[in-house]
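ok so dumb question maybe but i'm new to this and my supervisor (M.) told me to 'just get the structure for ABC transporter permease' and walked off. so i did the thing. is this what she meant?? sequence i used:
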Amino acid sequence: MFSLAREFWLAWRSRRLLYYIINLVVNALWVIVLLLAIAWYGGEAAVAARFIFWGFVVLAIFSQLTWGAAGFNNYIKSGVADYLIASPADFHKYLITTSLVSAALALPAVAAQIALYYILFGDLPPLAQPLYFIIALFIFITSATCITTAATLFFTRLRNPGLAANILQWTIPLSGGMIPPTAMPPEVAHWLLYSPLHYVIAPLIYSATGSWLGDPVKTLGLGVVITACLYAFSLYIARGALRRVRATGKWGSE
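this is what came out, is it supposed to look like this??
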């Protein structure tokens, strides 16, 4: 079993401090720019912030996971990945562990956004239904970890995964309800119910604001089922990739 603490320490040491600080600032600026745009067009910034804050938290966490997945290509170039597949340890567990570490590395960005919210509005972000929020957070982190575990092995087929990572870091959160469906026109929000990602991302925003598009228990229940399916899919992809690399000696991007 891979040590989560060890992987976290290794990942933290590999980060460039200046790059990390820039990321924190950029994430905070995204929130400020959007709120200024809403205020410019006559919207109520405090009301808008209540709905969009947790969407930006979703983006911050998933972005960190996505770029952590893209960074696996550096292991391939350095030859470290070859030692991983030669190890008797479970390759899928390793990928899951490193994805969880990437989620943990997003905590400073989340803390910066909470601090910014407090500075702007003199209060902490809304958390209307704490129990549902904890369940929704577990569903989101687990499902996002499974998605980026599979994405890691997709990125290995690309010489430069930067463009694909950029597309993925926005596409998944947006198609899952990063922008709260309850704040959208009903005819638009209705279509999100057909997206499986809606049930693993949007509940985080729903539980924080207390405003749900459907029944909370059923929504969370579907989220658990979809998360289990994503875990099975990531396991299938990891085992298939491992067999291919052991048979051919190549990851695909060499």
